[in-house]
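Hi V.,

You were right to ask for the full record rather than a summary. Here it is.
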Amino acid sequence: MRHDVQVRLIEEMLGRLDAGTNIDEGGIRRNPISAYTDPDLAKQEWETFFRHHPQIIGLSGDLPEPGSYFTVSDFGVPVIASRLQDGSFVAMVNACRHRGALVVDEERGTARRFTCPFHNWTYDSGGDLVGLPKRDHFGEIDTSCHGLIRLPAVEQHGLLVVHPDPDGVIDVDALLTTEFAEELASWKLDELVVADRDDYDVACNWKLANDTFGETYHFPALHQNTINLGFHGNVSCYETFGRNHRFLLCRRSIDEMRLLPKEQWNIAVATLPAYYLFPNVQLLPTVDGCFFIRIYPQAGNPGRHTSRITFFLRKGVTESSEGAEARAEQEKTLAQLFASIIRDEDYVMGASQQTTANSGAMSEVIYGRNERPLHHYHNTFRTALGMEPLPLVTN
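Predicted structure:
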């Protein structure tokens, strides 16, 4: 993030903190409870936002070296993401061209070849068919056109993006907007390395999980003895970039900025930036790393989702030097604590909300004037589905 933008945002946050004010949407919005329960809406979201939309599946550090790979099966199409020997990133459908079995069962690893366990058809790391047992028995087949099906794949700004449709198109700058993409690039996401991972299967709608990252109004209540100790609740900064946004959470350490010249102000010390990447990614950079959260609905079940959380560290934290190992371990411990708070506090509350939503006892939920990201999430979802935006109620 440009330093002049950091200064502007920290000044804005300090002003709100001192005045006891917060971001203000100018009114409230009411969302029908069916947004979290309607199976027809869930099916439409699945097709529009996941089966037929570019997916941000990881960061560059998920493929740290030539030959490294990982698999994804969260949006209806099983995918192998692979780093070729020349360093480029490719993605392929994880299905053998013989009988369609999954070629790779492992979640991640390093390999020069992928061999289908069914009949030992073998593919190189780019998906070309390079081995076919008993070819003379099998029959005539052109191996050059029976490699794994390639998917559109782009690595840009440290993001790994795949389109589930082989004929799909990826335009990262159009997805993010140029200004937003430039800001993300300034965090040097391509230099991060994986430190830890966790997955949560939760009985709540995927949009309720997204809502978790959309306001700090709940900090003094739900996180009284955890996050609230390090963050001010109900004070924040917010800016949209098309379908995406930047939401700044106010760290209590922001007071350190008051004692420093503005040339030394650091947005990652004063705040925790939460970037929302439409439709299902939350990216939270820190001084020493980044939280990367992917949120997926469970196909056919609007009341369940999976969150996949990866914590990355900056190379300087992990490189061998005096105190580096202890610092890296400390950061990893803090990451695990943060993830456990999401699991044991935020997502427990999401499951609670889903229980009442499923009961049909309520017809709507309310987004307050101080919960601007929630207004943005849900109206971008609705607009993308051809639905009318939720109206703003100002009185």
